[in-house]
Please model this.
Amino acid sequence: MTRRCRRSAAPFGREATHDRKTHGSERDSKGSGALIASVRRLAVIAAASVVVAGTLSATATRPLPSTRAMSATPAVPQRIMSMNLCTDQLVLALADRQQIAGLTRNATDPGMSDQAAAAQGLPVLRNSAEQILAIDPDLVVGMPASSSPVLAAVAPQRYPLLDLETANRLDQIYRTIDETAAAVGHPVRGAALIAGMKRDLATLPRLGRGRVAAYYQRRGYMTGTGTLVDDMMTRVGLTNLAKTLGKPPLSQFSLEEMVAARPDFLIVERATNVVDDQGSEMLHHPALSDIPRIVVQEAWTVCGSPAYTRAAHSIAAQIARHDRAVR
Amino acid sequence: MVSIVLEHFGVTLGRRAVVRNVCAALEPGSLTAIVGPNGAGKSTLARAMLALVPATGRILVDGIDAAAMPRADLARRIAYLPQGQLLHWPLTVERLVGLGRLPHLAPMSRISATDTAAIERAMMRADVFDLRDRIATELSGGERARVLFARALAVEAPALIADEPLASLDPGHQIDVMELLRAEAASGALVIAVLHDLTLAARYCDRLLLIDEGQIVADGAPAAVLTPERLRRVYGIDARVETGGAWPTITTLGRSGR
Amino acid sequence: MSHWLPRPLLIGALTTLAVIAGLASLLFGAVDLSLDRLVAAASGDGDHIASIILFDLRLPRTLLALAVGAMLGLAGAALQGYLRNPLAEPSVLGTSNAAALGAVAAIYFGLAPLHPAVLPGLAIGCALLSLGLLFLLAGDAESPLTLILAGLAVATLAGAGISLALNLSPNPFAAMEIMTWLLGSLENRSFDHVWIALPCIAIGTAMLLWNGRALDALTLGEDAAQALGADLKRTRRRLLLGTAIGVGGAVAVSGAIGFVGLIVPHLIRPLTDRSPSAILLPSALGGAALLTLADLGVRIIPSTNELKLGVVTAFLGVPIFLIHLMRERRLW
Model:
């Protein structure tokens, strides 16, 4: 019935994530102690950590296409369950509403998911094995689904799984769309979505002209190469500061180093525009005040999703606005 | 020169009247002992005279109501040697005795030549000058008692109240301390001591205030106060009081039937 | 027996040490800047990058390290004197954690932006509350241990409060922040923080330094102190307010940095006549130097992530705490 993902043969990939303190790791530890109100964001914590785990292992491992699993499932599954914020968005974009039996907690958060509006009214799961048993899904989509500890608790061999790899490049996004579309029984929608994205990107101006930008996250984490953000920066003609400095996919970069490196742009996430904790406060330090900023929505960059094109266009438009203002 | 007058003086702690309606006038140049059984209110009376516990009635120090007097003024008039003092920091003897000058120091001022002289005088009188560089917490009990006494003397106040200054001292040191108190009175100070040893009290003091259940039951010269009848009533003891010598001696014979 | 330094010499030496620490803190950082570049930046004709690093990043951080360290050292000395307990200090007694709780509440529930005074105000309020609770719990207990246990209870309660507040706050990154608040950090501080902390620290310092005489008198116990003219009610009020305002303002920008108030008076005391008043000002100077050096260590010790200040001070402070506790054991 199911297919074990081959990436499980590479535990190294998972270990490595703990060394690199990404927002994923912050969210992980948060997950263990969380109580009441912040539950809203908890799923993304888990989701994001999976994203990161995927980010780092994606180059080394690649899940098998799930065709064999598919062959045993009905052609059009009717109770699809998504295990991850990123697969939530793919399922919402490609499946019919009545096919969807369960999404993760953050699926309805517009700050996290580009498909939040579409997710309204659909059942949201609480990461509980009991709920999975009750739903008895005929397709479980995850990134990858087979690594979900909740699923592992309920004998996953019972359910058809779709293991998707984490998309850190545009071609990987296309592939996840393709695979999801096929699995949910709407391959034509997938092809149309991909074609639309390709049209959108064909008009993307490369305004960066090789200027240096740093994707600077809360607490001074800088995103490096091999990431979705790096892929976007390259596509609009920017050079990733982390790349010029030879930094890993995620590194901590102090304010002093940032001031000294003096990139042409800082790319920051929209959520950090509001200072509501120390992590975001540092991004508003006066020492950074004279570096131009590009703001992107987290919902567009957390997952490799169809929103990629909007993110890329948004960055290009902000560079254009900056260039006009300077001129 | 200072005078202390207690007018219908009383202290209530919790709901219990610990000191009741005490009236007395104390004169300079005299050594007065407050005596009485445990729990009679001796220490409370002593503390109340320093306004350390809230009291009813009045206490006039030099004719001024002590309750209305700024604490520093009172501190310059009456020095106090509390019962069983703990020392919290390992100060040198000289530094410790110097604490007695605190009431005289203006805020933020440094210690003056007058203060240094007073400290030296106090150490000389209490015979601890040789100990001045020692750490006070490392001294023997007798030495420490003398050092603390010197601390009280360093205030150079016209009045001194000592609460059980003889506690935990051997007979020799007890006599030393009584001699010091006597010498203070002789030099014109008003000295009050809370004492348990009736013979020492009778030998050294000019006047005894015998207290029972918060009230003065007798006030006067030792020979007049210490009668076998009173000792039976107040302490519940049978005692022989011999008044033939230079001072009355009290020999306790046993518990009385009351 | 006594091997203490003359006071002007002691104060001069400690001031020099604090100044050296401050200068070192300006010289070293994540980016290597040559002395020439820094001097040029300081004199106003340096390059843009060097002057931003010097004036916007290193200077506020250095000023805060000096001020916060001075406040913690002084608060430790004053609390030890007042409580006559060599283990008393803001973090051991839970004051720092409580102030951090106030700061956390102000920041994570969105109250801080309402008014600049909200953040230090809440930190000070919580610090005051914790001191009140502490005095209520420990009362007039003669045993120094009772106080330490009460402090432990207050500190644990406030620490749990911080975790709870961060968990309840609508912030997904709170876990990382808990560490900063409980271990303390001066990373990424700006002049905004200096202006929050400095007035509070100045007021707190003045109120605590005022108490010297009364603290000396308290060496002889409360009765004797009062009989020596000390007004203990006012002393207590000044001490509580001074500690709460100073430590509250400091913790609001630095988090709860432990043990500075314990280590410094302990190191200073043997150099003085050991009276409580004699260690107040030197403890402030020593605290400034110690925390600035610790913060320098945090930056220089190679690590992937910057160390938290509390880690360094705990390694220095816990041994001293234990030595004292062993000595106290005979009183148990």
